[in-house]
Structures are given as structure tokens and as C-alpha cells.
Specification:
Layout (H helix, E strand, L loop, with lengths): L3 H26 L6 H24 L9 H24 L5 H12 L3 H52 L6 H7 L3 H5 L3 H14 L1 H19 L5 H11 L2 H15 L8 H26 L4 H10 L5 H10 L3 H28 L2
Helix pairs in contact: 1-5, 1-11, 2-9, 2-10, 2-11, 2-14, 3-4, 3-12, 4-5, 4-12, 5-8, 5-9, 5-13, 5-14, 11-14, 12-13, 12-15, 14-15
């Protein structure tokens, strides 16, 4: 049973995040140290340098030969359910759109496995729970973060190519080429996919986890240790991952008219996806695979962890619903402790 000391350990891991957020907020709002273009530069530093090294560092320390493949399969099924649901909504609903589909996937799929998940699962289920949430973080970095990057790059490529296609308003041209106007406005899917593929391949976030996993496979197979020079070169940047991400959220908050720049309706929408839809789909996926006992409980609770810091970093970089993701990270992290403890208590009673 989780005790007050365990809850304190989780809170003590979360408070430093808000110290970094407060410093970011104060540096713009009170001390006027950074301008908007400076804030964008700091976020790009985090997105393309610190975060990839953070992911690579953490992944390289995991033993991939001791992973639970049933747990991985359950996670894959839950994400498939989410994607099918979002696709149906986007194509069948009047309010459905590609941009909101991407944001909804981020809200329901990416969680804070390292900062909140590791200490919480350790307190609830010991080393067993900690190992499973670490496996979840690897899967998230290797597959779902890359998939989200692909969706974001696809949206950016469409916007850029639409801007490059300038409609010709000449009466003569309209008369001659009116039939082909729609085709000239919208580039083919193959060209867009090629551009997106090249951009994703050049993004260091795409291959950071792959390099870390490759090293883990080699290191644990032949009992190798990473050279000190290489390890130090990675760690010196990766240690700043969570702190800089929260600092960037503070910068973003300071640049807005309101601290929480998101409506109550959208805030509740994000909370429902994060704390209800995500664990519900994970429960379905786990039951389909046949997970029972503690592994089922850990699977459900880790799916209800608060929003991943990386989701805000990507939203800020690509300019897609930044206000929704920032609110999801800030407010979701605050309310996550009572929500997760409630999940733990209910699942314990159902044992």
C-alpha cells in the first residue's frame, strides 16, 4: 500500500519542475531578460539538442532483453484504438480536422513516464512497476514520439506548399486553366510524403532513441560499458532535459495575456483524454492480450500519468495548439497525484 512517504517522494520529484517553470516565467514577466525571439531560440535548443540527448541517454541504460512483450503489445493495441477513434471523428464529424486529430493523439498518447512515472510506480509496485514504466518510456520515444513528429511535419509541409502555390487571377489563365486549378493548388500526396520523410529523417529526435536502443542491445549482449568520454558528452546536455522544457513553458506563459491561456472547455477536453481515455484504451488492450494482476494495474495507471513535457516542446516548435498542450502539462501535473492515487486504490479494491 502506498504511504505518505511515497507520496512525498513523488511530490519532491515534481516540485523542481515548477521551480524551473517559475524561473522561466519571471525571466520574461518580471525581470525582462528575454524577448519573444529569444524564447523561440531556447525552445529550439531544447527540441533539437537537449531532448534527443536526454532520450538517447535514458534509452541506452535499459536492458532490452528483459522487456515484457505482452505489455508492449497491449500498448500497441491501445494506440491503435486511439488512432481509429480519432480517424473516425476527423472524417465523420463536422468539427473534425487534421490539426485537432494530431493534438488529440498527443493528449491521449504521450505521458510523463520519467519524472512522475518512475518514482510513482516505484512507490506503488516496487522495482516491477518501475521497470514497466521505463519500458513504456522507451516505446513512447521509439514509436509514438516519432509518429507524432511525422504528423507534425506533414502538417507543416502542407502549409508551406499551399503558401508556395499562388493562385493566378488572370482572366485569360482562368479561362484556359480553370479545369486544372484545383490540381495546381494541392500538391500530390507522394510529393508531400517525400518531403515529410526527409525532414523527419533529419530531425535528431527521430534517431536519438534508435541509437540509444542499439547501444543497449550491444552493451547488454556483450557486457560492454560506454566510454567515459562519450557518456560524459551525452550526459552534460541530457541532464537539462526536464528543467529546460518546464523553463520554456514558463517563457510561453509569460508571453501570454493570461497565465493559463486556454478555455475551461479545452482544459477539460485535455484532462478527459489524458486521465480517462488513455487508461481506458490501455485497459482494453491489456485485457485483449490477457494481462492480469499487478501488470494490468501498472499498465492502466502508467497510461494515466500526466502529459509529457515533450508534447509541449513539439507543439511550440510546430506552432500547433500550444495553449492547449501547455495547460495540459501544467494543470495535469498538479491534479495527477490525487487522480493516480485514486486509480491505485480502486484497482486495489477490485483485486
Amino acid at each position: 500500500m502506498i504511504g505518505w512517504e511515497d507520496i512525498y517522494n513523488v511530490i519532491s520529484a515534481m516540485i523542481p519542475l515548477y521551480v524551473a517553470l517559475l524561473l522561466g516565467y519571471g525571466s520574461v514577466k518580471w525581470w525582462h531578460m528575454f524577448k519573444p525571439d529569444h524564447c523561440d531560440a531556447i525552445n529550439r535548443l531544447n527540441c533539437y539538442f537537449i531532448m534527443p540527448l536526454f532520450v538517447c541517454d535514458f534509452t541506452s541504460r535499459i536492458d532490452p532483453y528483459k522487456m515484457s512483450y505482452k505489455f508492449i503489445a497491449a500498448d500497441a493495441i491501445s494506440k491503435a484504438i486511439i488512432l481509429i477513434t480519432i480517424s473516425l471523428w476527423a472524417n465523420c464529424s463536422i468539427k473534425g480536422s487534421y490539426q485537432w486529430s494530431v493534438t488529440s493523439f498527443s493528449l491521449s498518447s504521450l505521458n510523463n513516464t520519467l519524472v512522475v512515472g518512475v518514482p510513482l510506480m516505484r512507490a506503488m509496485y516496487g522495482t516491477f512497476g518501475e521497470n514497466l514504466v521505463i519500458q513504456s518510456s522507451i516505446l513512447q520515444s521509439l514509436l509514438w514520439n516519432m509518429f507524432l513528429l511525422f504528423l507534425l511535419e506533414f502538417e507543416r509541409a502542407k502549409q508551406q506548399m499551399d503558401l508556395e502555390v499562388v493562385p493566378n487571377n488572370s482572366a485569360t489563365d482562368v479561362e484556359c486553366n480553370g479545369i486544372h486549378e484545383d490540381a495546381s493548388r494541392r500538391p500530390s500526396v507522394l510529393i508531400t510524403m517525400k518531403i515529410v520523410g526527409l525532414k523527419v529523417a533529419k530531425n535528431p529526435n527521430s534517431y536519438a532513441c534508435i541509437l540509444g536502443l542499439f547501444w543497449a542491445l550491444v552493451a547488454y549482449r556483450w557486457n560492454l560499458k560506454m566510454p567515459k568520454i562519450l557518456e560524459g558528452s551525452i550526459v552534460i546536455m541530457s541532464r537539462a532535459g526536464s528543467g529546460v522544457a518546464m523553463f520554456c513553458i514558463g517563457l510561453f506563459m509569460a508571453l501570454q495575456e493570461k497565465i493559463v491561456h486556454c478555455s475551461v472547455k479545452l482544459t477539460m477536453f485535455g484532462m478527459v483524454l489524458r486521465f480517462v481515455a488513455a487508461p481506458a484504451t490501455m485497459a482494453i488492450g491489456s485485457l485483449c492480450i490477457g494481462l492480469r494482476g499487478n501488470i494490468l494495474r501498472v499498465a492502466i495507471i502508467q497510461a494515466a500519468l500526466p502529459q509529457a513535457l515533450a508534447s509541449f516542446t513539439y507543439a511550440k516548435e510546430y506552432g500547433l495548439h500550444v495553449n492547449v498542450l501547455s495547460t495540459a502539462v501544467i494543470f495535469g501535473t498538479i491534479v495527477s497525484i490525487p487522480v493516480l492515487v485514486a486509480y491505485y486504490a480502486v484497482l486495489d479494491l477490485l483485486n
